[in-house]
Each structure stands twice: as C-alpha cells, then as structure tokens.
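hiii so my PI (J.) wants the whole complex modelled not just the main chain, which honestly fair. so below is everything: four entries, each one labled with what it is. i double checked the lines twice but i was tired so who knows lol
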Amino acid sequence: MVHAMNETDFIKDYDPSAFQRPSVAVDLVLLGIRDNRPAVLLVKRDQHPHAGRWALPGGFVGIDEALDAAAARVLREKAGMAEAHLEQLYTFGAVDRDPRMRIISVAYLALLTERAFDAALSAKPALLPAAVEVPWVGETGGAVNVLSPENEALTLAFDHADILTMAMLRLRGKLDYSDVAFALLPELFTLRQLQDVHEAILGASLNKPAFRRRQLDRGWLKATGAYESGAAFRPAELYRFQPSTAD
Amino acid sequence: MVHAMNETDFIKDYDPSAFQRPSVAVDLVLLGIRDNRPAVLLVKRDQHPHAGRWALPGGFVGIDEALDAAAARVLREKAGMAEAHLEQLYTFGAVDRDPRMRIISVAYLALLTERAFDAALSAKPALLPAAVEVPWVGETGGAVNVLSPENEALTLAFDHADILTMAMLRLRGKLDYSDVAFALLPELFTLRQLQDVHEAILGASLNKPAFRRRQLDRGWLKATGAYESGAAFRPAELYRFQPSTAD
DNA sequence: TGACATATATGCAAATTAGATATATGTAGT
DNA sequence: ACTACATATATCTAATTTGCATATATGTCA
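here's the output for the full assembly
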C-alpha cells in the first residue's frame, strides 16, 4: 500500500466522515461435524457487552491486513489452527450491532475436519464445542438453535446467531453443487462418511444408492483401493477428493 | 447507537490499531438488461487513481449508517433511483485495492428493470450504460468483458472488474432457484420476456416448452388474463410475479 | 462355520427434462 | 374477407435422472 501522499489531502474530498470511521472486524464460524451433528467453536465473552455469553471468535482487521488474512490470523490465534477451508460469508453492518461503537463485521465460514476440530479444542481449551440445529422452515431452514455440551440452549452474543444461521443455510445451499463437504472430511474417507456429512448438514437422511451414484458420477472421487479398518463388518473402500481437471 | 462511553476507554482493549482504521465503502453494480444483454451503469472517474477510467458508483459508509442504508443512499444519489432490488454481494478487502488508502468495499448488486435503467440514465446523463459479456469458462464463467456503447472494451478502475465478474456469476448461480429474474422485469411481462432475461444472464438459449413448464410449475407466476399489445403477431399473455404463499 | 452387519451392485418404476411437432390466434397485406 | 405469417400455446414421445427395492459380496465375531 502506498502511503506517499498525506492522507488528509484527499480523504476530505471523498469521505466527509473520514475521522469517524467504523471499525472493521472479522468473525469466524468454526464449523465441524461431531457425532454426526454440526458443531461450532465458541468463545466466552468476559467483558462489557454480553459478558458471560458465548460468541464467535473474531478480531479487528489491521490497517495493512487483507480481510482474508485477518480471518486466517483469527483462525490461527483463536483456534491455534494453521489451515482450514475459509470462505467469506457475509458482512454484517447494522448500526447498533455492537452497543460500544460502530463495528462492521465480515463473517467467515471455516470448515474443520473432526480432527482439526478436536485439535482446536485441545489447543484452546476455553473454546466451547456447541451443537447446532437448523430447523426446517419453509423449504430452507430457520434460525439456528445452539446447544451446549450439556444440551442447554445458548443465546449468542451480538448478532452472532444471525451469522451462524446464515452460515448453516449457506452451507446447505452449496452442499450439492460445490465441494464444501470434503473440507469437513479427512484426506481418506468412505462413501458412508461422505453421506453422513451431507445428512448432518441437511438434517435429513438420503437414499444410499442414489447418493452413491451421484457422487461417483460427479467425477470428484478417486478410489484408493484401500479399505477402512477396524470395522466390525465389511469394510468400505476409501476414497480421496480430487478436484476435476476441467475446473 | 450508544455513544455514552468515551470510545478510547475501551477501543484500546480490543483494537490495537484503533486510530488507523480502514475506510468502508459500498460499490454498486447497477445491472439491467438492454437489448437482451446485461448492462451496467458506470461513472467516469475524474480524480487521481484511475482518472478517466470507468468505475462502479460507490460511496463511503457513514458512521451512523447501516451498510444496506449506504447502498440505498448511493442508489439514490448516484442513480437517482428510489428503489430497486438490492442485495449484498461480497466484501473486497485487499490491502492495495485502492492506492490512496485502505478502503474496504462492500459490493452490492442492484437489479434494475429496463425502465429503471433508462430512468437512471435520464436522471444522471453522466452514467455510461455498458454492455457486459461473461464468457463461458469451465462450467460457470470467466472474467467479464465490459463494452462501451461504441463497442470498445473498457478497463474498469480499481478491482471493479472483479466485483462485476462476481456479480454476474452470482446472478447466474441464483437465477434458477431464486426470484431474481423478476427484479429485472416490469410488473407485467410475458413468458418470452422472462425467458429472454434468463437467456441474457446465462448467455445461452433455452428450450421454450421446458422453460415455460418449469416456470409455471414453480407457482410464482400469476396469469392476468391480459395480453401484450403492439405485437405484429399473436400477442402473449401477461403474467405477474407473485411470491409463493409458503415462503 | 455360520450369523451378522454393512458395502456394493443391479434392476425397475416413477418422475423429470429435452426436444420436436402440432395447433391456435393475433396482425398485416392483398 | 381472405390469406400469409410470426409467434404463442398445447401435446406427445424419447431420453435422462431419481427413488427405492432387492440381491449379492465381504469382512468380523461367536
């Protein structure tokens, strides 16, 4: 970034409220699948607004930091995680979403494998793994319910319930035309595991042969020839996600 | 918004760069269909970065202004338009997207009927109606080409070509599962007009009976019993968009 | 060795979609 | 008034996709 000019020289031409700028933050929906249910990692607020409530981990965007970089940094700092599927979700900019001051929040969706989810919990024991339920309302889904490990309903801080709702609906919407599901699975997985992930996100059960056919026809799955181990019955073949050559 | 506390009391606890905040702007993709092709309204930059280039109309977000409100204001001020379908698109936050200073831009997609598009042009003659082409690349689409009325290729200012590209791809993606197409049509329209809009956005031609069936089965169309006039052949029935009762 | 649980494969009916074709209905010209 | 014409609208059939049931395969474990 070029800071050669004196900012004030031109800011006034463009931005009458240049010295009353909103702050910009990123908030992360750290999503994984646990026990075949969607789960998010939350942090407990210990300060003024909504103190004691659970919230999405977030942080302010540095003046010389790209949005994606800020999201990656929060992922690193708050979840101790080097990498994860990270995609921008939506930007929340209601004036009073934070009672302290004007904060515009760019929400990101981070998809974690079960391993990564648990690793984050170990690295940051203060994180709460909360189950997420998305009721079926009018063909898509309604506002989410967030449940603590003890199955208590949680009220999230700020507008974080809205953010989480949007994350879940977005995930549902993208599920069958994109490759997001694979971000929730380990390198090698069985078709059953893939179906479990889909069912967890959709909150519905799917027809097995049809699901299998669709997935295989997609051309994204590469059979490894290896099989799962430890099963008390016939083991399933392990597949690997391989983005199609055309894309 | 509550400004009761002195901001500096708590900002420092949360934001180490509190006094070096990015500016937040909104940029609008004002999109309509002209001559069965997608078109956007652009403004000419007369100042420093990218002076002379065409850009998306935009404006800074006021400290006490919601993001959606800022977008609506820009729509009003820059396009002289009271209302239009307005939806948030994506937030662009690369550090060097503006060489002057750090500006995070929340892009909005505004869908205009042909009438509204022309009205904006009359109200603000400085606006340029530019045609947009989205080449088919790998199943979805590639970077857009923007053409002036004289068919010259235009290079947009800043990262506005990226914004426009995302707008077009988003529109394509939503076209057949959402009701966006109706935002581009007048109150009353024929099935042919609806199909024309779809074809313009997809950049492909569709099968007529199949399209007709799908649209009618959706339950969003209400036949009026009235027919178009002025056609030199059999006039088509006029339909009205009626959101389904379930949603 | 056989019960068992699940993976995998196959088959078929139902539903959806694509495409072609036929029919209807307005305008415009003679 | 009649006919050509262009397009709307309706109908029909084949192809494709999907849902679901059933059959077969293959591992563990008692």
